């Protein structure tokens, strides 16, 4: 039979256990807070050295990297004045004239059937369509970045994924857009209005063209238009709506900058940028469409510059190529899943436009 003394002893024992647990939790929290403060202090010190240190190129790279995203663009304001930031951005933005796309440089080739005896053969760029589905995926690795290149051998399978009746009301994730069209693959495309990072991905921030019809032309042309005409040729660098209509563009978006024009990499001044996730589209001389995504804002892949992705495009045979919306929007979806890593801390975001790859034999 228990006594009052036994009950009191038991209560004290339970209290001591609770106190020990509470002290342990407080200790863990204290360590966590100290760690966060230490990391914040280190990051602040690194950013201070980048902006105030002796390396002008490091300062410019930091400023261009953070200013390319609405989420962390304010970091540059901590260390530099508005005038200093404006001078850096102005020195990196060079107005470039793009010659009209020379369509004679593109000859749409019929994708050959694999030889029953020898199997799939390497093309002129050394790529092999092993499974015969007309889509080749290559891993991309560079100094400080990684990603994927998708080569779509038949350009007639590539259209812009968009739901015109939803524009201004709701956006679609890249996966949702691909599923809407029962597509094989998709990447994000044009930019969208995103006030304070709260946009729903429904309103394009510049012109888009879907099935030959322009939408949101009143928002302008951005810094680079890229579109596919009725002959499946990709144009990069059109400047006005009239030029877009005259070229019979069926699917297109604005973003930029143009990376490659008529086989030549765009001049250095217009390709100055920071390190960020990137998405781009291009076309080879045989008509194959190139779709590129580069991961960023990760330990294993900080991101790429415009110059980096332009050089990748040329390496894969691009005659024309253009940068698309990047950052937290950069995603590539293939055969039912995302194959790259999303940089967004709030999850995959909806967008108003994508470029998608239809199943073989499907008519847009």
Question: Could you characterize what this model shows?
Answer:
It is a single chain. By secondary structure, this protein is α+β, with helices and mostly antiparallel strands. Helices cover 26% and strands 22% of the residues. It is built from 6 helices and 17 strands. It has helices spanning 4-52, 56-67, 82-92, 174-180, 241-246, 306-315, and strands at 135-142, 145-152, 158-161, 185-188, 208-210, 213-215, 225-229, 234-238, 249-254, 258-261, 264-265, 278-284, 289-294, 318-324, 332-334, 337-338, 354-357. Strand 1 (135-142) and strand 2 (145-152) form a beta hairpin. Helix 1 crosses helix 2. It is globular.
Largest sheet strand order: 1-2-13-12-14-10-11
Give start-end ranges of low-pLDDT stretches.
none
Strand content: 15-25%
Number of DSSP strands? Answer: 17
Succession of helices and strands: HHHEEEHEEEEEHEEEEEHEEEE
Shape: globular
Count of alpha/pi helices: 6
| Cα distance spanning the termini | 85 Å
> What is the typical, i.e. mean, pLDDT?
86
Instruction: Specify the helix fraction band.
Output: 25-40%
Largest sheet: 7 strands, antiparallel
**Roughly how many Å is the radius of gyration?**
25 Å
The figure for the number of domains is 2
Q: Output the structural class.
A: alpha+beta
State the oligomer. Answer: single chain
